[in-house]
Amino acid sequence: MYTQMNIASPMPLTPRQDLILKTLRRDGRVGVDELAEQMAVATQTIRRDLSVLCEAGLATRTHGGAKLMQSGTAIAYENRRLQHTAAKQAIAKTAAGLIQNNTSLALNIGTTTEQVAEHLRLHSGLTVITNNTNIVPILRRTDLTSLVLIGGEIRLSDGAVVGGDALDTIAKYKVDTAIIGASSLDPDGAVLDFDQREVMVARALLNAARQKILVADVSKFDATAPHKICTATDLDVIILNAPPPAPFAARIENSQTKLIIADDPNHD
Questions:
Q1: Bigger pLDDT: 154 or 266?
Q2: pTM confidence score
């Protein structure tokens, strides 16, 4: 059985701590009361377990629980597909509802934008351009007018097409709507990503679109990334699964940016 080791100590995690870590990796955050009930132990026991995970650099404490410690690099793409799935589906359904048939659309790399593609299966007459190779098998058998995969270097970690050739291709298009995802959202309104090459592609897609939409779940406020795509007020629509932090909401309150909170049944 695999056990996660504390780098600062030779002591392995207990089976219960290992299970908590697996839950953190799946859900992104945990609550003390919920874990105590699920594992039939005292809340003080769970708090001690979370302290061990935090001291090991695997988690960070929050009010009433803990969240997964994220490094300055992106979580593995396949793992991201398994995180916050209900939120992504709610956001994607809302975004797809804003797209009319017989229009043109751009989608960038991201697990949420892939969910948007899934919810566009019943649309007709769409022209879709994307740098996300994962979207091709989702949409290739639907009633599209055209599906354009941007040419360029494929980033093997997630299937994104990036680089100068991709930018040159995007510059040839003007679409009705661009829907982008992001790796991180800052309460000051910054929309961020880990890879400068992907930032350049996302900016190009936004510049090529008449309507600019961001799709993101609120866990992105807990992540940090170094490269800025744009600010919230550069967008026409932002779709989240829950209300954002107060500074973010205040930043867009008096702007032309419309904030939509999708109906996420798993979020209070």
A1: 154
A2: 0.71
